[in-house]
Write a structure and sequence with these properties.
By secondary structure, chain A is of the alpha/beta class. Chain A has helices at 11-19, 22-44, 49-65, 67-80, 91-104, 116-120, 123-129, 139-146, 163-177, 189-206, 232-238, 259-270, 303-307, 323-327, 329-334, 345-356, 361-365, 375-379, 386-399, 409-421, 424-445, 464-467, 480-487, and strands at 84-88, 109-112, 133-136, 209-212, 216-218, 223-228, 242-248, 252-253, 278-282, 293-299. The chains are: A alpha/beta, B alpha/beta. Chains A and B meet through α1, α15, α18, α19 and α20 of A and α1, α2, α3, α4 and α8 of B.
Chain lengths: 500, 242
Amino acid sequence: MSGTFVGMPAFPTAAREALGDTQLRRNLAHATRTIRDKRAKVVAEVEEWEELRLAGAGVKEAALRDLATHLETLEDSLTRAGATVHWARDAEEACAIVASVTKAQGADEVVKVKSMATQEIGLNEALEADGIAAWETDLAELIVQLGEDLPSHILVPAIHRNRAEIREIFRRRMGAVGRPAPDGLSDEPAALAGAAREHLREKFLRAKVAVSGANFAVADTGTLVVVESEGNGRMCLTLPEVLISVVGIEKVVATWADLDPMLRLLPRSSTGERMNPYTSTWSGVTPGDGPQEVHVVLLDNGRTRALADDVGRQALRCIRCSACLNVCPVYERVGGHAYGSVYPGPIGAILNPLLNGVTDPQTASLPYASTLCGACFEVCPVRIDIPSVLVDQRAAVVDSHRDDRIPKPEAVAMKGAAWTFSSARRLARAEQASGLAGRVLGRFSRTTLPGGQAAAGRLPGPAAGWTSARDLPAPPAESFRAWWLRTNGGTDGGQDGGGS
Amino acid sequence: MRVALQITCVNDAMFPDTGKAVVRLLRRLGVEVDFPAAQTCCSQPMVNTGYLDEAVPVVRAYVDAFSGYDAVVTPSGSCAGSVRHQHALVARRSGDPGLVAAVADTSPRAYELSEFLVDVLGVVDVGAYFPHRVTYHPTCHSLRMLGVGDRPQQLLENVRGIELVDLPHATECCGFGGTFALKNADTSVAMGADKARHVRDTGAEVLVAGDNSCLMHIGGMLSRQRAGVRVMHLAEILAATA
């Protein structure tokens, strides 16, 4: 009953559409600014933040370096603690495991803890096709699910909605799938949360099976960790008889002590809180307490592909905090849907191509959905150098087209530029030509930029993308190189231009 | 000290006045710069679009032109960032150990203009005079790739007659992003529109930055809006005298 990203257009097209949505622009600008100001404030409180980032990156890097060993340790510890461990190569296998465990209980519904891994594999849709209803219990995920919408943010998937829209969704849709919204529901946050609480409570009390992900999986103790704000996750983790957790293999950390930097980095980076309200940890089955049947599905789904990428593997350090989304000037304006994935923003722009490859044109457009401004790297709690990975993934896109029978115009242009730029003599000739073109363009446009430089006017072809909204200076008749040669570096009385 | 000017391809072909300003400024400070005629481009347009193989001969041209200099000064944070942070990557890709070694030698000697003035020459007052209301946009690569910090502001604060006003949300990207400005023109313009709005909010008549490519984008928007704000490179203000 939710939407799907399948068939999304490439980023520039999807972004153009999003940019025209005034409500979206307003909601996002407000929400991202609020959350990044909050983050900046609580991060500034931690004197040794940079050391903490290094420690966090170190924990994840160490786990990834010896991933196979840690995963086997995790499997052993989990099994000893009474959990059943499953291995899933891809989305299809993972969904089939969850469906079969659920059916073995005779259940036709599950309650869900907010989880990116299950969103990634399209679990809800797969279960629905198998006759099993999956109820999202995270408030924002509930809003997205009821609205038959798509998530647009990793942490706050309904960030593109404001409270008036949420009220409308609750009034329209809650009754169809359970307890309806109360009469006279207002758009006050407390009232909306109250309506969600009432709606969800009957699902918590009824469900036999819960599905979660995990923020961390501790190998030496066989402990899964879920970090959340609302307590709805803990309801799912403690009330039902059966718990199935779908965990990406990169979530493993070696030891319990490794959680220390991670649990300090995550809340400050994600919600901008010093500490998150609920941290649940469980190690297999505890007799008489909580779920008595515990399954853990360890998911690959492209992660080993990313691990094999020398530059890109650092993306597997990601702890899904969303700080990079909130600080990204591109994300702030276009929102999450334009990325065509449950992983939007800067991290999505590298993670999707790393997990899936760049053969699909939509995925291949993602590494280019950035100005490489570097704000993401600056805030990343595990120091993922996103700009460098973006550039490397751009190279992967270009390299995947090197054997094309008919090269793209961009490839031809870049080869031409490289040829010109590998010889100063060729460059000087190109500049003479551009100077001539500049004179012609300047004469045609008869406009000047503030300050006096001639403008090029409106240009056709690919340059129209520039001049449709921005003036462009006409190239001056004399390049710097030519001036230097003519005036001997300005010492022959040629100290013209630029003087004031 | 042998000092070379790396003019950058954009300044060479589009903004020669910036280069002339750098020459005039450095000469005033007693530094005679060379302009190695063999120089072309830092290779950033190729690298940032993903054409790493195409970048190899361009990086080779850079090291050929600039080896042997004690310092290479460039009026662009972005190009200095490319030299210091991307040349090694391109050299590794080439598989040529000679190029890897040459890059390891030339890259660390590249300085963005404000770094060169403050760190190498040790001056913050360059004796400039510029009696106008000015706001400064710190470009992303100078800020986050190079870490120039407040060096440009220190230099501007010491300019006689200047009225320097803070730009709101200064550290937010302007939306230029090289080929991003064309590949994702709509998003680029949306970001540029907000930057232009913040510039206008300052009431400044001049927007200054250390990168003409970013200024071409923001200035292009301000010009289209007939905003009454012109853009100038940092070098042009620092070179200005009474």
